[in-house]
Amino acid sequence: MTVSMEWAEKYRPGTLADVVGHKKPIEQLREWAEQWVHGMPEKRAVILQGQAGIGKTSSAHALARDFGWEAIELNASDQRTAGVIEKVAGSASRMRTLTGVTGKRLVILDEADNLHGNSDRGGSRAIINVIKNTNQPIVLIANDLYGISSSLRSLCLEIKFNSIQTRSMVPALKEIARKEGIMCGIGVIEKIAENADGDFRSAVNDLQAVAMGRSEINIEDISTAERDNKESIFKVVGKVFKGKSVRSALEASYSLDETPEDFIHWIDENLPHQYSGKDEEAITSDIVDAYSYISKADRFLGRVRRRQNYRMWRYASTLMTGGTVVSKSKLRGGFVRYQSPSLWRRMGQIRSKRNMRDNIAAKVGSHCNESMKYSRMGLTPIYASLLDDDDYAVDVVATLDLNVDELVQLKGSKKVTKKIQKIYDAAQQLRPEIVPGIEFSGRPVEKAPKKRPDQLSLDSIKSPETKTESKAEVEIASGEKPVSAPGPGDRTVASGKDAPAKKQIQKKPQKTLFDF
Ligand SMILES: Nc1ncnc2c1ncn2[C@@H]1O[C@H](COP(=O)(O)OP(=O)(O)OP(=O)(O)O)[C@@H](O)[C@H]1O
User: Where do the AAA+ ATPase domain residues begin and end (predicted)?
Assistant: First the structure.
């Protein structure tokens, strides 16, 4: 097994045919390159846009190789001043390539959504000028189009790279494992691909990490690797709180698989737990000092979000880790069980509660032909109060098609109580059948006659006799013999045979709120 070289580099696709997924964008890229072969395309530059690690840069290099072009890559760490860009892709480059061979040169500008910093001074303007005049193909690579000016965008053909689907990654990962002589147990590759969330580079990195020192990988090894990653965050947090070397804390934080956006929450959550003891005054002062650095780091994170300039993450990291390290008046050891950020849990809870509240309001709104916003404010509380009456409650749940969690929330309860479960079960039997192709609006168009709450209540599902009474009620109300007995099973679309029964039931005077 070779571990000396990164597999992601080793298995970088050599030609466009080796690129995993991206059928359509690769086709677009090829067509654009063909136009260069036969002359000059309308757009002399393309922007390959998509999340990191999905093969944009590799595709650009593979394109150059397939077409026999020299590739020159300028990434954000290069000095992308107007002069440099002009030199590489401007008028001089029209004569011949760097190697002296006359032919096309593919200029690849990585991180094109990041052309703001000092080193890129004039970069954006220079690229615009170069694109207008060049006779060399130019590829811009960007995670996000928002960081690129509209005047630059208008000169480029935009090609979107989507994240790679798990099922496309699996055969490619299996092939890498085979070439590396690694045996993989059932589901191993699928799990790695799933965890990567569309990012093929991280899938390859994960495969390499878990294969290190093994010739066989089983599914349990993957869970261990996931746990190792979690352990490493605890180690880094420990280094920040307990160590005195800014450098080693910073280096440890860079090795993490967490962004500064996430890491700051770990520090924020655990700082007060780590700094505890009897010397209250010193502790308070250390905590205040550390938080003053953390808040400055947070300001940088805000700037990164607003300007999409990820270079400033560096300052944020230095402030939050280095700042916390230097703000200790003395070293504090002691074991502390670090917690994952509670803010995430709270946000998750709030978000899911809010989503549920909106779902309920949308269902009420749909039933009453009102907007979700209006029903959230005005109507939902009314429906909530109807739940106090068990019979209405069953009808409300069935009519609005509430699920059990929504019922719990609308009832203002904290959990599924026995009563709530009973209401829900009763509603399941009353629930109208949804006619395919017709969206449920609380009033399905064609369905078997819906039983009224007075026909099916909590009690009525308890004893079969009560159901018989209900049949009798229909008979009395219609003055005719009922065609079929309404029971839990008869929630099908009304057939011609059922039609008379439906007609009779519609004649019945309104008895409940939902009888319209
Ligand atoms: N679609 C893909 N097909 C084959 N290999 C891929 C693909 N996507 C990523 N890889 C692997 O991941 C590595 C990184 O890919 P690449 O640099 O092309 O991604 P990117 O989208 O340009 O990411 P970034 O925006 O971070 O530069 C490659 O060396 C390759 O091993």
Answer: 42-174
pLDDT mean values, one per 10 residues, the chain (516 residues): 65 94 95 91 93 90 93 69 68 50 78 59 72 88 81 93 92 95 92 87 87 87 65 82 86 83 91 81 91 94 84 91 91 75 69 80 88 80 87 88 88 86 87 42 38 40 38 37 36 37 42 46
pLDDT at 473: 38
| Torsion of the alpha carbons at 454, 458, 463 and 467, rounded to the nearest 10 | 20
Ligand 1 pocket test: which of 109, 159, 199, 200 has the largest number of ligand atoms within 8 Å of its C-beta?
Answer: 200
Phi-psi region of 162 (alpha: psi -120 to 50; beta: other; left: phi over 0): beta
Q: Which residues contact 16 (CB under 8 A, 6 or more apart)?
A: 26, 29, 30, 59, 62, 63, 66
> What's the CA gap between 40 and 33, in Å, rounded?
9
Asked if ipTM goes beyond 0.90, one says yes
Which residues define the annotated binding site for ATP?
50-57
Q: Per CATH, which fold does 22-160 belong to?
A: Rossmann fold (3.40.50)
Residues in the ligand 1 pocket, defined by CB under 6 Å: 8-9, 11-13, 19-22, 52-58, 141, 143, 164, 200-201, 204
Q: What separation in Å is there between the alpha carbon of 162 and the centre of ligand 1?
A: 12
Q: Which of 58, 63, 111, 145 to mutate to test the pocket of ligand 1 (most atoms within 8 A of CB)?
A: 58
Q: Which fold has domain 166-229?
A: Helicase, Ruva Protein; domain 3 (1.10.8)
- The three-class DSSP label of residue 457 is coil
Please report, in range form, the residues annotated as the binding site. Answer: 50-57
E strand or H helix at 48: strand 45-49
Cβ–Cβ < 8 Å for 321, 240: yes
Measured by CA distance, the residue closest to atom 15 of ligand 1 is 55
| pTM of structure | 0.50
54 CA distance to ligand 1 centroid (A)?
5
